[in-house]
């Protein structure tokens, strides 16, 4: 019998979550379609003034990304909680923090990465310039993992609660405001011909900070929720 | 060796049990008895470390399980009311994934052998969703055969099992005990393991 290393476990959890998502595609598609719909509704509702659309583009895309990541959050641990897999995860002879990190990475690949990839296409509806589109992708690439990481804490805390979906949004959305501000700010900076380095550095700093602390906090929250 | 001293546990304001003490040596098996709601599952979950006891201590090989943490989990196998299997995955994938979560890898050949012994021939590659309740329980129980954990904590392992599977469980537990393992379990069905004295713990 071969023992599994810490990285082996991390890989296993990611592979497992991706495999489960492939067998249950509707969940992944819901998030993506919601994002596409919300972003596409704005040009229709606001009207075709290119100047105004260009101005609001980054804000709209970011708010939609925030909302659609909220949509997928309650599912992060709930299926494992309901079928008892989470109990077994808490009993894994490896660090629960690493296991939670694996789940966060898988969640981001399923709910964050698709948004990053489709965002430039949606940006075209807002007549965004090439540089702005490029910056939008980079900012989303730095920002969406933070949403998954902070969201993991909320999802773990509200596990098994009635109305947990609403509660998780109330808990997590305020914490995501800085990401929204600096993410949208990076694109605005490019639009107004300034450097976006400060915004991106702050986003990167947030991401590293979240990477260090959130898996541990979410793991503790899971232990509390299971009691 | 598992030592439990003066253990007390409550859910909400309701005290489930207190002053509970026992010692389990290698090769011993203990059945936890009690009416519905007497705290059998809570006791087993406390032993797993999911629930913090109000009082008392749980020692594994002389050390507190809270301090041991992952080292204790490596020697522990818990099977709860829930099967911890995924409907979307096949029996084979489920077994390999749960082995992975328990910290070891199982080859495909090994997993198929184990599933066959559990009476799941030609079901290895079917999604668990199409299996019956009893067959799902068998998939969950297949973990017992791949694991090298010393302490088995089984909560109602015989639910939904037919006579043949109950016989198989008795055989598995017998093998585990003769290899120096320990078992604590709850059940409302009769379970006899040949050649071993069954210890009883009654919760009231």
From TrEMBL, chain A:
Lipid bilayer topology: Multi-pass membrane protein
Transmembrane segments: 26-47, 59-77, 97-122, 134-160, 166-190, 202-222
GO biological process terms held by the UniProt record: cytochrome c biosynthetic process; cytochrome complex assembly
Subcellular location: Cell inner membrane
Entries under Pfam families matching the protein: CcmB
Alphabetical list of InterPro entries matching this protein: Cyt_c_biogenesis_CcmB, Cyt_c_CcmB_bac
A GO molecular-function descriptor: heme transmembrane transporter activity
Any Gene Ontology CC annotation: plasma membrane
Keywords assigned by UniProt, alphabetized: Cell inner membrane, Cell membrane, Cytochrome c-type biogenesis, Membrane, Transmembrane, Transmembrane helix, Transport
Recorded family membership: Belongs to the CcmB/CycW/HelB family.
Stored NCBIfam families: ccmB
Biological role stated in the UniProt entry: Required for the export of heme to the periplasm for the biogenesis of c-type cytochromes.
Full protein name: Heme exporter protein B
Species per Swiss-Prot/TrEMBL record: mine drainage metagenome
TrEMBL record, chain B:
Chain ranges of the ABC transporter domain: 2-203
GO MF, any single term: ATP hydrolysis activity
The protein's Enzyme Commission number: 3.6.3.41
Biological process according to GO: cytochrome complex assembly
Enzyme class: hydrolase
Pfam families tied to this protein: ABC_tran (PF00005)
Keywords: ATP-binding, Cytochrome c-type biogenesis, Hydrolase, Membrane, Nucleotide-binding, Translocase, Transport
Gene3D superfamilies, per the entry: P-loop containing nucleotide triphosphate hydrolases
Designated name of the protein: Cytochrome c biogenesis ATP-binding export protein CcmA
Biological source species: mine drainage metagenome
This protein's encoding gene: ccmA_2
């Amino acid at each position: 019998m071969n023992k599994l290393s810490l990285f082996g476990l991390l890989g296993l959890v990611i592979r497992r979550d991706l495999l489960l998502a492939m067998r249950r595609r509707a969940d992944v598609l819901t998030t993506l379609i919601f994002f596409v719909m919300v972003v596409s509704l704005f040009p229709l509702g606001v009207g075709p003034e290119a100047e105004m659309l260009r101005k609001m583009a980054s804000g709209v895309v970011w708010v939609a990304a925030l909302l659609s990541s909220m949509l997928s959050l309650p599912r992060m641990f709930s299926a494992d909680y309901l079928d008892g897999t989470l109990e077994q995860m808490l009993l894994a002879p490896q660090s629960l923090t690493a296991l939670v990190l694996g789940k966060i990475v898988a969640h981001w690949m399923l709910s964050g990465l698709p948004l990053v990839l489709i965002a430039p296409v949606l940006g075209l509806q807002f007549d965004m310039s090439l540089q702005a589109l490029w910056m939008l992708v980079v900012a989303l690439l730095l920002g969406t993992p933070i949403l998954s990481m902070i969201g993991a804490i909320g999802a773990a805390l509200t596990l098994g609660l009635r109305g947990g979906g609403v509660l998780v949004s109330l808990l997590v959305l305020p914490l995501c405001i800085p990401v929204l501000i600096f993410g949208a700010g990076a694109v605005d900076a490019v639009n107004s011909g300034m450097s976006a380095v400060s915004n991106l550095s702050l986003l990167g700093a947030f991401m590293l900070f979240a990477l260090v602390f959130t898996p541990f906090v979410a793991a503790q929250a899971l232990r509390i929720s299971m009691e | 060796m598992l030592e439990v001293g003066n253990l007390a546990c409550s859910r909400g304001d309701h005290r489930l049990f207190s002053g509970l003490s026992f010692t389990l040596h290698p090769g011993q098996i203990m059945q936890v008895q009690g009416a519905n709601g007497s705290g059998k599952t809570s006791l087993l979950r406390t032993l797993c470390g999911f629930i913090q006891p109000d009082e008392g201590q749980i020692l594994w090989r002389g050390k507190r399980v809270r301090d041991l943490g992952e080292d204790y989990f490596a020697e522990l196998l818990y099977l709860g009311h829930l099967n911890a299997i995924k409907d979307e995955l096949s029996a084979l994938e489920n077994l390999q994934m749960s082995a992975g979560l328990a910290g070891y890898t199982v080859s495909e050949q090994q997993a198929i052998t184990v599933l066959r012994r559990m009476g799941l021939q030609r079901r290895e590659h079917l999604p668990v969703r199409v299996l019956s309740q009893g067959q799902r329980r068998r998939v969950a129980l297949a973990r017992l055969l791949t694991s090298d954990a010393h302490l088995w904590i089984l909560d109602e392992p015989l639910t939904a099992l037919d006579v043949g599977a109950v016989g198989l469980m008795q055989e598995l537990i017998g093998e585990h005990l003769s290899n120096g393992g320990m078992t604590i379990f709850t059940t409302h069905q009769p379970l006899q393991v040949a050649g071993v004295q069954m210890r009883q713990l009654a919760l009231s």
